[in-house]
Fold this sequence. Notes:
The protein has one domain (3-147): Thiol Ester Dehydrase, Chain A (Roll).
Amino acid sequence: MNAAARFEPRDPHFEQRVRASFARQAAMATIGASLESIEAGRVVIVLPYATALTQQHGFLHAGMLAAALDSACGYAGSTLMPADAGVLTIEFKINLLAPAQGQRFRMVGEVIKPGRTVTVAEGRAWAIDDAGRERLVATMGATLMAVTGRDNILH
Length: 155
């Protein structure tokens, strides 16, 4: 189901806010991740294959996959939060389903249950080969917290 049809954002400018926040995130820039799409309750991040991000067998390292999936889930939650709220992940669980082998990777984060303080999101990571075929390589369950009134947490 399309998350945009299910949830009403509290900030009409959520897309600009998410883009600005993502631009400040050095970790995603370091691994080469970029935003592909932003909807209310749903964010897609793409990551190109890079040898520097692999483990000893040449697969995308699970830590890189987890970082990008965490960001997709966090930003999906952020789309439904007020303009003055930052978001922090307070818990996540990742299931690694198959070796992350592909030319690029698509991380989809979707809100399952938004809340005023705590939001629950799910993520899916897809490996895409050079023929465009997709393979599900990981899933994530994430719990997010809205943070307001703290100058050290930007929104």
